[in-house]
Each structure stands twice: as structure tokens, then as C-alpha cells.
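S1.2 Input.
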Amino acid sequence: MEVKKAAADVVEKLFKQCIAKNDMTGAKKFLDILVIRLADTRTEAERAALVKMMDDAEMKYEATRKARRRGAGGEDRRGEPCEHPSSRSRRSSNKANNTTRRGSARRGARRSRRTTTRSRITSRRTSSSRGLQKSKADDKILQDKISTMLVNLISIGIQTCMNAASMLMTQTDYQGALEYVNKALKVDPKNEEALEMRSQIQQASSGTGNGWGWGWGGRPGGGRPGGRGR
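S1.3 Output.
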């Protein structure tokens, strides 16, 4: 959060620099970042103040442009002929009406811009919320797949150890067979097949086992099946 706040401070500084340079395009870009992407780093009042600063700067910028256009047109009334008072009155009335209309239009534009900004903020938050929900759902699916894969790998590993132990038992290599069984039990201490085979290996290595390959007394060449030597 501290990093995000520091980033918001930098963006706000750039926004104000654009305002000072009359760069309305850059100012709008940085304002969108502040009130939408970094909205949680500013209070509602702070965001409203930034929007008002943008509105005031745009009004000032438009007024400056109009003044420059009037100056470029060479409007100088000093050499104009005198006109009838009624014409002057009508022109003044029209000018007042136009000023009123422009003021109403500006106020409407400001209201529309504020409404648009709030709508964009709400839309962005809704989109982020949906994206987060989708991400969580995807993470759950991925976790399930990984869990299934791990279970399969563990099962394959245990079965491999059991096959190796069984083969070594037929060769009367009880020590090697016991090592593989212990590996299987290390993964799954309650594996019934591994526990049973360990018991059989212990019996066979002590000379008490029965069956082919298990009753050799644990000694190479140590007697016939059944545990009896010649």
C-alpha cells in the first residue's frame, strides 16, 4: 500500500505539472489514473478536488483560446461607425443571452463530466471485481488439477517402490527390499500393502517366513524353500 500511495503522489505531481503547462490531454490521462486505478489512495473529497481542478483548468484554457482567436481576428471597434441605440441594445441582449447559454452549457458539461467520471470509476471497480472472482475460480481449478496430479504421482511412486521390493525379495535381497518398503512408508506411513510386505521381509530375513524366496534363512545359499537346510 505504501508503494501504491507513493505512485499516486508521483501521478498527482505530474497531473499538476500538466495543468500548469495547459496540457489538458496529459492532465486528463493522469487524472483518470488517480481517480480510477489509484482511487483507494485518495479520499472522496480529494478526488472531487482533483476533478474540480481539472474543470477550472479547462474553463481557463478555453477562455484563453477564445481570447487569442479574437485577437487574431483583429477585432478593433475604434474605427466602426456609430450604430443606433436599439441595435446596440439588441446586441447587448443577445450577448447576455449567449453568455447565459454558454454558462449553462459549461455547468451541464461539468455535471456530465463528473457523472462520467463516477460511472467510469464504478465500471472499473465492477470490472476489477469480476476479474478477481474469475481469477479465484481459475486458481481453484488449477489447485484441483495440481492436487490430482500429486496424488497420482505419489501413487505411482509408492507402487514403483513396492514392485522393486517384491523383485528384491525373490532374490533374497531383504536389506534392499526393506529400503524400498521404507521409502514407500515414508510417503504413506499407513499404506497397508507396504506394512504387510515389511512384516514379510522381517519374517523372511529372520528365517521364520514361508513360501518361495522367503524361507531361505536370510543367507545366500542357506537352505531349500521351507526354511530347512540339508
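S1.4 Remarks. The first helix runs from residue 2 to 20.
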